[in-house]
Every structure is written in C-alpha cells, then in structure tokens.
Amino acid sequence: MPIELKGRPITSGFSRGKALVSKNPLSFLGGVDPKTGRIIEKNHDLNGKTLANTILCFPHGHGSTVGSYVLYSLVRRGVGPKAIVNETADPVVVAGAVIAGIPMVGKVDISQIRTGDIVEVDGYKGIVRILKGEEESCI
Amino acid sequence: MYLTKEEEGIYEGEEGWANQIAMRILVKLGDLFEADRLIPIDSAHISGVSYKTIGDAAIEFLEALANAGAKSKVRSTANPAGIDYNHLEEMVRTPKLHERQARIIELYRNMGINPILTCTPYYVRRPREGVHLAWAESSTVIYANSILHSWTNREGGPSALAAALIGKTPNYGVHKPENRRADVLVKVETPLREEVEFGALGIHIGRVLKDEIPSFEGLLRPEETHLKHLGAAMASTGMASLFYPCVSCPKSSDRLETISVDMDDLKNAFESLSTTDASPDMIYLGCPHCSVEEVRRIARKVKGRKIRDGVKLWVCTSRYVRRKAEEYVEIIEAAGGKVISDTCAVVTWLKELGVDVLMTNSAKTAYYAPTMNRVETVFASLDQCIEAACQE
C-alpha cells in the first residue's frame, strides 16, 4: 500500500517522479544555477544536486521574490522540478509554481519522504503518495 | 476566495494567457493567505527591474507576458534599473548589460508601466490616504503604510506585476483594519536627530521584532525623510511593513508590550553597519532615492567645494526629483559630484566601477552592500560623508 500524505492543494496538476528531499529552506535566486538546475546555495544539504525532473520536497522558500522567475526559467529550460512539495507554502514559491505551470502541494510532512522515493503529486487534491521506497525503486 | 463572474472568466482564460496567469497568481496567493476576495487598487509599484538583480530568467517571463499582450490596468511605477542612460560615463561599460537592461525597461513600458525608475514613487505622486495599493520594494511599502496611510501588503515583483495587470489585489494582511493595530511599544530613550540615527534604530528594531507592528515613543517631531530611513532599515533586517511614529497616532494604543531602546543598542546597531574604517572610493547618498529637500541639503553642504580626486560622490534620486531640484543639482555637479537617476549604487554593477569601499548615510545600503555588491562599507552621518567626499 502506498503511503498517502495529505496536504493542501496549491497549484493544480498531476506528476510522478523521484523525490529530492531537503531539510533546508531554498532560495531559487542565488541558490540554484538557472542554466543547469544545480543547487549552489552554500551549506545547503542539496548543494551540488540537480533539480531536473525531480519532485522537489523542501520546508519552504526564502529570499528574493525574483526566485519565482528563476523557477519559471528552470522549468522552461527543462532543468526544473516536475512538482513541488512544501511544509509551508510561501509567496515566492507559490507564484513561481503558478507561472511555471507545475503542481504544488503545501502543508505536507516531508520528513516521511526520502530522496529517491518514487512519489506521485496530486495538485488538485493536495495529496502526495509514496509509491515505492528508495531501496525498492533501485531494484 | 470569492471571485466575481468576470474574475472567474479571466481565471479560466477568457481574456488571454497574460491576464489568466496574473489572475492565477493573485488567486493562489489569496487562497494561501485566506483572503475573502479581490479588491481594486489605486496603483501598483513593481520591483525586479535591474538586470543585475533579476537576470535572464525574469526577462524570459516578461517577454512571454508582453508577447501575450499584457497591459497594466492601473497607474504603475517601477523600481530602479541597473543603468542611468543619461550618465553612461559613470556606468559599467559592458554592451550586453546595457542591451539587456534596455530590453527590460522596454518590456515594462510596453505593458503600460511608467518607466520612472525609482524606489520613492511617492515623491512623484503621493497616493491619497486610505486607498489600497499593491506595492513591492520593502522601503516603499513601509513608507506607504506608515507615513502616507495608504494600504499595501509587502508585495514581491511577480505579485505586484500581477496586481497591475488585473487592477486588483487579494484582501488580506494590512488591507484589513484589524491587522493594522500596533502590538508593541518601542520606547526610544535617547534623542535622535539625524537620518543615520533613525537608520540605526530601524536596523535594531527590525532584528528584535518578528512580525509585530511597532509604535514608537520618544521620536521628537521627526521629519518624513528621517522616518523614511527608519522604515527602510527596519524592513531590511525584519518583516515589518507598518509602524506608527508616535503613540498618539491613530490605531496605536498605550497598553502594549514594551521594548526599550537605549544609547548602547543604537551604538551597537550603528557599528554593525561598517565593515571597515578604510577611506572610501565612493560616497553614496540617496538610498532610498532622495527627496528635493535632501538634494537641497546636500547642495548646501558642498556649495563652493570640490570633490577629492579619485573619489566619487553619487547622489541618487528619480528623474522627477532631479528636475525639480535642478538648481541644487547644478551646485552638486559643479563641485564634481553626480546626481544619478533611474538607478542606485546597490542595483548597479558597483564592483565593476572600481568601488571597493562604499561610504553611505543609508543604513539600508550599509546592510545590503557587503553581500549584494561585495564591497566594504562605512556607515557615517551626512556631514562625515560630505567631509570624506570633499577636499579640505
């Protein structure tokens, strides 16, 4: 049985992919290389990882509102996340998800999700399903 | 959030992609903050104009909006850009930067946004008391709420732009009277006279408060320019978007949790804003952009003097104020200073201009410049700035 995490629907859409999970807040402006989707924020637990085609799970955004445009640009270039899962939705990430056209769910207990898990994001209902744990998905 | 039939139509795309995406931003943010409806705004002020701060990512989005025929429905102004095209000899010389910056300004202009590029749009046109606004730029927001008594949340670039295109903003936060009450009393136990002291107070209070609204006691007949520096500094280190400069102001009350601020607090905040005591390459006045009165005050102090060799004096303001203060501009420029408009030291390519040490009377600039511009800062009073700038 997949684990179902109930959250709050923010932007609509449906997506499935591998989770990339962080314990740290993320600033898209300055924190992510807009050309490659690589995380460059110093001392960030995802430093060096790329966002491309991930289900990006992090507590919340921080920093400049220009971050919304960076998220748009990442997704348009094909190096952005497929969906966003946050503990607390903040205006920068919400506006970014709207203009990038990707599903977003807030108020999710992201400590339940591990990097590498296959997850499904339902932006209409605000539900995140963990379909396979990291080990299973590696087989 | 309740939407009218017309708003619903825009949300579903009946008025094209640009309006749809703008409406979606407003509705999603409105839902997030539990707004009940959209309310009409008097004007919008948009941040995210300097190519140095927004880069190519934002241009891609603005191009898409402009291509889709986006047009502002209300009076809209925009923040400073990275280049003053009337003072190119003072600016970074990279042609690509000039082109990209010009494109951003053109895109905003095409959307009907007034390309008067300033963080003090209220000197150009002062909104009436009690109107609702959707303003971005934290110093502009706190000035609007606290001094102009016009109401705006602390918008970001995208939400202010969306509000401009729709002519409305979601009704939450300080748009509601019940969220505008002061909830902490700040007793200032030492008299403040100059903008640097007000700036240091703002830096200190911004750090101490979370999202409380402060009411100040002990500010003796402060000038609006002093309060501008107080607010700009407070919004730099904190989340504040509203303060009351005196306890007798409306909506303020005397039964509040109290914070006392003494000379030591101010001294610590003041000292935290300098990273060096080296002599400056540039003296920068005009963050936030100067009023006519501030330009006049600077002119009076430099009249008949000469700026030192190898030192730049930049006074930044809007084109509008620059024109109104023309006689003072002439005095400053005769001394060898430059009155720059459409940009400022923080959002231009300062390092590329050979600036390593920046001296300023602005607490906001002193707070941001070390990280945003990678320069050392000296935070000093207007008189000290003028002495450092001028020959003996």
Describe what this molecule looks like in 3D:
The complex is a heterodimer of chains A (139) and B (392). By secondary structure, chain A is an alpha/beta fold. Chain A has one domain: Glucose Oxidase, domain 1. Chain A has 4 helices and 8 strands, in the order E-E-E-H-E-H-E-H-E-E-E-H. Chain A has an 8-stranded mixed sheet. In chain A, helix 2 links the parallel strand 4 and strand 5. The N and C termini of chain B lie far apart (64 Å). With 392 residues, chain B is α/β, with parallel strands linked by helices. Chain B folds into 3 domains: 172 residues, Aconitase, domain 3, CATH 3.30.499.10; 92 residues, no CATH class; 108 residues, 2-Layer Sandwich (Aconitase, domain 3). In chain B, strands 12-11-10-13-14 form a 5-stranded parallel sheet, sandwiched between helices. A 4-stranded parallel sheet of chain B has the order 4-3-2-5. The model of chain B has no long low-confidence stretch (mean pLDDT 95). Helix content of chain B is 41%, strand content 15%. The longest helix of chain B is centred in the first third of the chain and has 17 residues. The interface between A and B is medium-sized, with 23 and 24 residues.
Give the % helix of chain A. Answer: 10-25%
CATH architectural category of the largest domain in chain B: 2-Layer Sandwich
Briefly note the structural class of the backbone of chain B: alpha/beta
Weakly predicted, low-confidence segments of chain B = none
State the CATH topology of chain A.
Glucose Oxidase, domain 1
- CATH C-level category of the largest domain in chain B: Alpha Beta
Describe the main β-sheet of chain B briefly: 5 strands, parallel
Strand fraction of chain B equals 5-15%
Q: Helix and strand succession of chain A? A: EEEHEHEHEEEH
What share of the residues of chain B lie within helices?
40-55%
* Shape type of chain B: globular
Poorly predicted regions of chain A are: none
Instruction: Give the C-alpha Rg of chain A.
Output: 13 Å
| Subunit organisation of the chains | heterodimer
Q: What distance separates the N and C termini of chain B?
A: 64 Å
Number of distinct beta strands of chain A: 8
Q: Given the C-alpha coordinates, what overall shape of chain A results?
A: globular
Output the helix-strand order of chain B.
HHEEHEHEEHHEEHEHEHEHEHHEEHEH
| Total domains of chain B | 3
Strand content of chain A: 25-35%
At the fourth level of CATH, the homologous superfamily of chain A is: Phosphohistidine domain
